[in-house]
UniProtKB/TrEMBL annotation:
The chain crosses the membrane at residues 26-46, 53-76, 82-100, 140-163, 183-204. Residues 22-205 form the ABC transmembrane type-1 domain. SUPFAM superfamilies: MetI-like (SSF161098). Keywords: Amino-acid transport, Membrane, Transmembrane, Transmembrane helix, Transport. It is found in: Cell membrane. CDD domains: TM_PBP2 (cd06261). One of its GO terms (biological process) is transmembrane transport. This is Osmoprotectant transport system permease protein. It is a multi-pass membrane protein. It comes from Amphibacillus marinus. The keyword Transmembrane helix applies. The keyword Transcription regulation does not apply. One of its GO terms (cellular component) is plasma membrane.
C-alpha cells in the first residue's frame, strides 16, 4: 500500500514530464504504424495477387519479426545513428508482419463468387481490387493493425537505448538507479497505452466486421 501511495505521489510530482514522455511515446508509435500501413498494405496485396511472390514477402516480414528488438535497434543504430528517426524505423519494421499478413489473408479470403460477380459486370482487375476485394479485407487489416499497435507500444519502451525518448526513459532510469518507483512510473502508463490501443482498435475492428457482414 505504501508503495502505491509513493508511486502516485511521484507520478503527480512529475506529471508534466511523464505527459511529455507519453506524447513522445505515442508519436513514435503513430509514425511507425503509418509507415507500416503505407508499405504493408501494398505488400500484402502483392502477396495475395501473385502466388510466387507470397512466400518471399511473408518470409521476409516473418524474419524481421523474429529478430530480437534490442538487436534490431542496434543494427539500425549503425546505419541511422541515435535518435527518434531510428526508433520509428525499428517500430515500423516490427509492425509490418501483422499488417502484411492480415492484408494478404483478407484479400485471399474474398469469396470466389463475389469476385466472379465483379468480373461479370465488367470490372477491371484494379476496380475489382479497390471496390470489392480490398474493402472486404478491411476487418482483417484492422485485426492486424490492432496487433501491430500493441507490439509497437511495447517495443518503444527500449527506445532510450538508442537515443530515443518515450516512457522507456523513465523505466531505464529506474533500472539504472535501482528505483522501483521510477520503473513503474514508466511501465504503468506504457501498459495503459497498450490496453487503450487494443480496446479502441478492437471496437473499430468489430464495427468493420458488422459493416461488411451486413
Amino acid at each position: 500500500m505504501d508503495f502505491i501511495i509513493d508511486l502516485g505521489r511521484y507520478m503527480a510530482d512529475h506529471s508534466a514530464e511523464l505527459i511529455d514522455l507519453t506524447i513522445e511515446h505515442i508519436l513514435m508509435v503513430i509514425y511507425a504504424i503509418f509507415l507500416a500501413l503505407v508499405v504493408g498494405i501494398p505488400l500484402g496485396i502483392l502477396a495475395a495477387k501473385f502466388k510466387k511472390l507470397a512466400p518471399v514477402i511473408l518470409s521476409l516480414v516473418n524474419i524481421l519479426q523474429l529478430i530480437p528488438s534490442i538487436a534490431m535497434l542496434a543494427i539500425l543504430l549503425l546505419y541511422f545513428g541515435l535518435g527518434f528517426q531510428t526508433v520509428v524505423i525499428g517500430l515500423f519494421l516490427y509492425s509490418l508482419l501483422p499488417i502484411v499478413r492480415n492484408t494478404y489473408v483478407g484479400v485471399r479470403e474474398v469469396a470466389d463468387g463475389v469476385t466472379e460477380a465483379g468480373k461479370g459486370i465488367g470490372m477491371t482487375p484494379f476496380q475489382l481490387l479497390m471496390k470489392v476485394e480490398f474493402p472486404l479485407s478491411i476487418p482483417f487489416l484492422m485485426a492486424g493493425l490492432r496487433v501491430a499497435a500493441v507490439i509497437a507500444v511495447a517495443v518503444a519502451t527500449i527506445a532510450p537505448y538508442i537515443g530515443g525518448g518515450g516512457l522507456g526513459r523513465e523505466i531505464i532510469s529506474g533500472i539504472s538507479f535501482q528505483n522501483d518507483i521510477r520503473i513503474y512510473a514508466g511501465a504503468v502508463p506504457a501498459a495503459a497505452l497498450a490496453i487503450i490501443a487494443d480496446l479502441i482498435l478492437g471496437i473499430v475492428e468489430k464495427r468493420t466486421k458488422k459493416r461488411f457482414a451486413s
